């Protein structure tokens, strides 16, 4: 009886051991360094995904989407039937998992994601004091003397050290001594009080050797002066031209709303990418209708809206 009991105990522990082993997880050098369950690539260097030892393996990948739930299919990776899988930066924006077998046990690992957020191009937000400025052209703004304009990197979590400019630098990357560089400023924001064309160059915090220049098209030209619309500052009156609309949500992944109720209808709505290419145009658009921008490539865009009264509005938005 004692011998039988010992045998049964050994058998139970053996079964539990097999079941415990049939619980695959994925490990890799970059996994979890910045965010749990994510691998962030600095470039296209290889990354090796590994799991525990099992009888057989099949690795799968699934394309990322902003939609919830993710309805993209899991696809078996041809030839990926070993304990390890090698991926690289070209595999960013995919989920990965591995299915394993051990004896009569079959199981799948939790999914992990290969992310590429560190490649997000820089974008700049400008903050003006109402009544102290007038936009005279796309990216050109007249500002009253004594006022200020605050510029912010929209993605400070991505970028670390910044180099700010008061004109477009002569090279990318900029070289020391370039007269456009604003000395001693390396944070993710800058407040301008004098005429110049402002933008920045920044290096990603996670990948310090990976740096990006704000597109010169997105630099903002400020012209400080005693403009006519500045004459009534401090009197409670303003002659500021109303050339901006409320747009929301911003950033957006799918739907964008524009407008103010007083306009009712916009004769024409045009979306332009940062290279100047027309990517979407709508006629007779009602102010409370959604504009589907899900097909646009993630990045920065200009939206130009022409009201029924002839007013033209220009806004920037970010497609996620």
UniProtKB/TrEMBL annotation:
Q: Show the Pfam families listed in the entry.
A: Por_Secre_tail
Signal peptide range equals 1-20
Q: Does the keyword Signal apply?
A: yes
Residues covered by the Secretion system C-terminal sorting domain: 247-318
Keyword annotations from UniProtKB, A to Z: Signal
Q: Does the keyword Glycoprotein apply?
A: no
Q: Which Gene3D superfamilies does the entry mention?
A: 2.60.40.2700
Q: Could you tell me which NCBIfam families the record lists for this protein?
A: Por_Secre_tail (TIGR04183)
| Name of the protein | T9SS C-terminal target domain-containing protein
| Organism per entry | Chryseobacterium rhizosphaerae
């Amino acid at each position: 009886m004692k011998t039988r009991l010992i045998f049964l105990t050994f058998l139970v522990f053996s079964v539990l051991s097999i079941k415990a082993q049939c619980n695959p997880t994925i490990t890799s050098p970059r996994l979890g360094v910045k965010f749990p369950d994510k691998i962030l690539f600095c470039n296209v260097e290889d990354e090796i995904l590994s799991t525990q030892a099992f009888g057989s393996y099949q690795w799968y990948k699934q394309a990322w989407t902003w939609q919830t739930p993710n309805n993209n299919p899991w696809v078996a990776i041809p030839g990926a039937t070993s304990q390890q899988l090698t991926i690289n930066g070209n595999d960013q924006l995919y989920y990965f998992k591995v299915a394993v077998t051990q004896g009569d046990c079959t199981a799948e690992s939790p999914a992990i994601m290969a992310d590429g957020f560190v490649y997000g191009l820089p974008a700049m937000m400008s903050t003006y004091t109402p009544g102290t400025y007038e936009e005279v052209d796309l990216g050109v703004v007249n500002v009253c003397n004594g006022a200020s304009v605050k510029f912010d990197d929209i993605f400070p979590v991505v970028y670390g050290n910044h180099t700010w400019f008061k004109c477009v630098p002569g090279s990318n990357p900029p070289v020391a001594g370039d007269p456009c560089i604003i000395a001693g400023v390396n944070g993710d924001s800058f407040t301008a009080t004098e005429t110049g064309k402002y933008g920045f160059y920044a290096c990603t915090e996670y990948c310090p050797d990976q740096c990006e220049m704000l597109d010169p098209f997105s630099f903002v030209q400020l012209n400080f002066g005693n403009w006519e619309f500045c004459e009534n500052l401090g009197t409670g009156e303003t002659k500021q031209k109303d050339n901006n609309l409320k747009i929301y949500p911003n950033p957006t992944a799918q739907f964008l709303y524009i407008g103010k109720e007083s306009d009712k209808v916009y004769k024409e709505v045009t979306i332009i990418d940062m290279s100047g290419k027309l990517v979407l145009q709508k006629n007779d658009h009602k102010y409370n209708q959604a504009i589907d921008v899900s097909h646009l490539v993630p990045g920065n865009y200009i939206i130009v809206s022409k009201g029924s009264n002839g007013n033209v509005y220009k806004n920037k938005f970010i497609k996620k």
